[in-house]
Amino acid sequence: MKIICIIPAYNEAENIVAVINSVKSLVDEVVVIDDCSSDDTYFLAKQQKITALKHIINRGQGAALKTGTEYAIRENADIIVHFDADGQFLAIDIKTIIAPLINNQADIVFGSRFINKQDNIAMPVMKRRVLMPLARLVNKLFFNINLTDPQSGFRAMTKLAAKKIDWHQDRMAHCSEILYQVVKYNLKIKEVPIKIIYNNFGQRFSGGVRILIDLFLAKLIS
Amino acid sequence: MFQQTLALIVIVFFLARLFWQKQKKQIAIAEFIFWLFFWLISAGAIISLKWLDKIVASLGFTASGINILLYLSVAVLFYLIFRLRLKLSKIERDITKLVRHIALKK
User: Fold this and answer.
1) Residue A180: how many CB atoms within 10 A of its CB?
2) Distances from the Cα of A64 to the Cαs of A26, A69, A70, B18, in angstroms?
């Protein structure tokens, strides 16, 4: 079974080598997509003897993930893992996230910071108590999605699922769009607990509003 | 009267620019027709402001004709900005496609 790990990276020269080395032994191929970083992310990734792709213009995390996913489909991966380059995810959780796919229990598996309470204890109260519940409510109301972690970037999917999910959101709204398409195509979902080491706290309220605007515009275009 | 003349001069200036752009083939025919009608209707509305005042009054509005024109133009501007945003989103998608194609080709 061929497992490819996709790591979108933007100005992650500080973390990229450690992240690549932490996941390398757990998957068959590591693919880093450098999203037009201004630092040495691309060269450092290339030095690790992995596949490094480069966006010549910065297009956002969603776009970089899609580039990597298309590459993995082309390379005939059986399982595609989406992983962050900032060192916040634990590589060992890859085993947990791909297990339901290997056992045929799901088409797509999401890592959740909210299944085990101690996994999100370091998250700021505002995000844990206000932003995340709000995002869950939006997912429930507009997309009829019931997941504990509405913005999880740690996910794994089968090639079949990856072929069906065709997201167009280049920036942070891709998480919601992927969820929406998973429900639309009736794919089997599973959530597994993951641990996060918090370096920074990701989305702010303004980021959440931006996601909603992007999703609204995308609805009008399509 | 002076304000009307000034507005008409501005419209004539924009019409002249429009024809110049058309001649230089800098503008698509559909866009040319849209702006031509837009400026001609604007000129017509300014010329017949008194008649417009009467129509607006007969419709029960308290504002004068020029105010209604102003409200309408603000609404049109909002719509055009919205259309522009949609177009920008489409262009962004196309840029992403190109960037992805180049990344995967290497």
Assistant:
1) 20
2) 22, 9, 10, 41
Provide the residue range defining the domain that includes B27. Answer: 2-78
**A14 CB contacts (<8 Å, ≥6 apart)?**
none
The answer to whether A169 faces chain B, any CB pair under 8 Å, is no
Residue B103 lies in a domain: no
Q: Are A145 and A139 in contact (CB under 8 A)?
A: yes
Given a cut of 70, the residues of chain A with pLDDT beneath it are 117-124, 127, 199-209, 215, 219-222
CB half-sphere exposure, B61, CA atoms < 13 A: 14
Q: pTM for the complete prediction?
A: 0.78
The answer to whether B97 faces chain A, any CB pair under 8 Å, is no
In chain A, the domains with their CATH numbers are: 3-221 (3.90.550.10)
pLDDT digits (tens, 9 = 90+) for B21-59: 999 989 899 999 999 999 999 899 888 888 888 888 888
- Asked if B25 has any chain A CB less than 8 Å from its own CB, the reply is no
Number of domains in chain B: 1
Per-residue pLDDT reduced to its tens digit, A43-54: 999 999 999 999
Interchain pair A170, B102: CB under 8 A: no
Answer whether A67 sits within 8 Å of B85, measured CB to CB.
no
Specify the pLDDT at position B49: 83
In a domain, B66, yes or no: yes
| Secondary structure E strands in chain A | 3-9, 29-34, 51-54, 79-82, 108-112, 155-158, 189-193
Backbone angles phi, psi at A75, to 5 degrees: -85, 10
C-alpha distance from B12 to closest chain A C-alpha (Å): 35
Instruction: Look at residue A118 in the predicted model and tell me its pLDDT.
Output: 67
Tell me if B29 is assigned to some domain.
yes
